[in-house]
Design a protein that fits this description.
By secondary structure, the protein is α+β, with helices and mostly antiparallel strands. Helix content is 17%, strand content 24%. The chain has a single domain (7-102), classed as Alpha-Beta Plaits. The structure holds iron/sulfur cluster. [4Fe-4S] cluster binds at residues 56, 84, 87, 90.
Length: 109
């Protein structure tokens, strides 16, 4: 199962880390939640494939360390989500559907 595209309705923002919102629940290091709002990555699904970092034309993503997480010990954080041009390449290439891009989400919160 991939990222919940309606997470802003189904989860609560519990803070901010690496310049983006954190949507809970979180219980580090095993449970890290969803990161970002316009460009959102479910850290509990991300397995550090890296296709999003390679393919994003405007370099939205950067690796962050997540030691102790079961899927991978680095994650693709949408640090520069404000640069996103909504091309949807990252959504298409992610092998585990961990990414959801929605430019209207900010206005629905
Ligand atoms: S939708 Fe396109 S521009 Fe936006 S983060 Fe994904 S790959 Fe980058």
């Amino acid at each position: 199962m991939g990222i919940d595209p309606n997470f802003e309705r189904n989860r609560e923002q519990v803070g901010e880390e690496h310049d983006v919102a954190v949507w809970g629940p979180v219980d580090p290091p095993e449970q890290l939640g969803i990161r970002g709002t316009h460009v959102a990555v479910d850290f509990d699904i991300c397995l550090a494939d890296g296709a999003c970092l390679e393919d994003c034309p405007v370099d939205v993503f950067e690796w962050v360390d997540t030691p102790g997480h079961g899927e991978s010990e680095i994650k693709a954080n949408p640090t520069d989500e404000e640069q996103c041009i909504d091309c949807m390449l990252c959504v298409d290439v992610c092998p585990v559907d961990a990414i959801d891009v929605d430019p209207g989400r900010e206005n629905r919160i």
